[in-house]
Amino acid sequence: MPQYGVVLLDIEGTTTPISFVHDVLFPYVTENIKQFLESRWDDPAVQAHVRAIAEQADKDIKSGIDLAVEVNLDEGSASEIQHAVVENVKWQMEADRKVGALKGLQGYMWQFGYKSGDLCGVMFADAVEAIKQWVRTGRKVYIYSSGSVEAQKLIFGYSDHGDLLGYISGHYDTKIGSKVESTSYTAITSDIGIEPERVLFVSDNIREIQAADAAGLQTVLSIRPGNAPVAHHVFAVSSDFTTIPH
């Protein structure tokens, strides 16, 4: 593997088990959102997230998306609007949507869960050790995930291996572009200020690996328990990041 100076990591299925996201983080939102909205309805941040959800719902309906749930902020009582937001969020999560409005509200809810101790980020031990090794050898580590930057920081800041944020040089989410588009990786390397060929990208998603490869990055496909099986491909793989050449 050629020399690299930056490591760009995915989270779900890469540094963190998919089961943590789907069996812990997502249920935390669906099980608590009703009470969360009721108890924090006057919080300006909550209102901002609700407006974003309503705006996304309006776009979805106008786009003709089946089953999209309307959130009308101009009609109905607070409890009726809250009910609509709850139904909209549950619909979006069931559809596994990656839109910013949903990710923003999820991240805000998780913030309270982590700080209260109800949530703790789960990390693969080898990923943590590899991150520390990369930093010790002078490399910079960045995160690129479909989850919001705020949600990323919570997983690493409140992890089962302690606060790991000091090892992370920066975070990117889909505001910079879709993870399956090569232009997103070009934008990230440009923002970091490094040639694409000097960046190693690690992810469990073959389409993301293909996009990064097309942009000129070095790549490693993450193989973890619970990850979706990948058909024949030509990319390097790893189930233990400490064995990736440093």
Jot down its keywords.
246 residues, 8 helices, 6 strands, globular, alpha/beta, single chain, six-stranded parallel β-sheet
Describe this structure as you would to a colleague.
With 246 residues, this protein is an alpha/beta fold. The chain is 47% helix and 11% strand. It contains eight helices and six strands. The chain has helices spanning 18-39, 44-62, 78-94, 100-116, 125-136, 149-157, 182-192, 206-214; strands at residues 6-9, 140-144, 168-172, 199-203, 218-222, 237-238. A six-stranded parallel beta sheet has the order 3-2-1-4-5-6, with helices on both faces.
Helix/strand/pairing category: alpha/beta
Q: How do the helices and strands follow one another from N- to C-terminus?
A: EHHHHHEHEHEHEE
Mean pLDDT: 95
* Total number of beta strands: 6
Q: Report helical residue fraction.
A: 40-55%
Shape: globular
Short description:
By secondary structure, this protein is α/β, with parallel strands linked by helices. The protein has helices spanning 18-39, 44-62, 78-94, 100-116, 125-136, 149-157, 182-192, 206-214; strands at residues 6-9, 140-144, 168-172, 199-203, 218-222, 237-238.
List the helices and strands and how they pair.
Elements: E1 6-9, H1 18-39, H2 44-62, H3 78-94, H4 100-116, H5 125-136, E2 140-144, H6 149-157, E3 168-172, H7 182-192, E4 199-203, H8 206-214, E5 218-222, E6 237-238
Parallel strand pairs: 1-2, 1-4, 2-3, 4-5, 5-6
Helix pairs in contact: 1-3, 1-4, 2-4, 4-6, 7-8
